[in-house]
Amino acid sequence: MADPPTIGILAPYRSNACLRVLQKLLEMCEQRGIRARELGKCTPDAQWPGIVVCLGGDGTILSAAEQAARRGCTIAGVNLGHLGFLSACGCDEVAQLVESFATAAYRVERRSMLQVTASGLDAAGESESHLALNEVALMRAQTGKMIDVDVELDGSLLNRYHADGVLVATPTGSTAYSLSAGGPLLWPTAGVMCLTPVCPHSLTNRSVVLPQNVEITLRPRERRGRSGESLIYSTDGQATHAIPLNAALTIRKASVDLRLLFLPGSDYASRLRAKLGW
Fold this sequence. Notes:
Layout: E1 7-10, H1 16-31, E2 36-38, E3 51-56, H2 58-71, E4 74-79, E5 89-90, H3 94-103, E6 107-119, E7 128-132, E8 135-140, E9 147-153, E10 156-163, E11 165-169, H4 177-180, E12 192-198, E13 208-211, E14 216-221, E15 231-235, E16 239-243, E17 248-262, H5 268-276
Parallel strand pairs: 1-2, 1-3, 3-4, 4-5, 4-17
Antiparallel strand pairs: 6-7, 6-17, 8-11, 8-15, 9-10, 9-14, 11-12, 12-13, 14-17, 15-16
């Protein structure tokens, strides 16, 4: 039998419930001979072990997803939040989680991510790039305003959307913002992406499911002479970034995946039933 793994623990939100679970997890790991240590802030130069336990909700996992994917780490979430679609277990199943570490009796799913590159951010052509596990959202910074966005697929125009915003989601993100915006539920291992306009002006504008090898470009355009209004884009709802008119967001499948750990017997159909109240 292989030696028990070394695990790291991320517990960014120091509520009483979180601290109790953290202490319980550390004690149980020690009892089973598993080396466990709490990790500090998610900085690029921090050393992470192969398995990282995230204590919190889906947002905690999303905040760690980019760094974990780049390092090739596996994330195991302990849900202390609400839905917990991405979590391996709830706080009452910590003992089962630790036992799965000790016996390697767990299942790992690879989830595709989006690489989002913003270009033409200034006169010098500055660009920036991020990874997203759920979605990228483009919208106007001022609430209550609509935007015009040209959407291109592999360089060919699909449509100009007049809407509150435009989302591009992974299958993992289909149960998040995309679902609230009217997008479809997608199986997490489906090799697709989903483009969804948010509250479009035209009722014929609906979600479009696309193959994951397509390159999507979003180009925000000036709307009816309102050149002074600013736009933003966000990745996984974790951070927002300004983007000027006539810049571009290029979205493609990332070269790295996120590895998510689940307990034995867990399957996506049962998770849907539990989380959506089916």
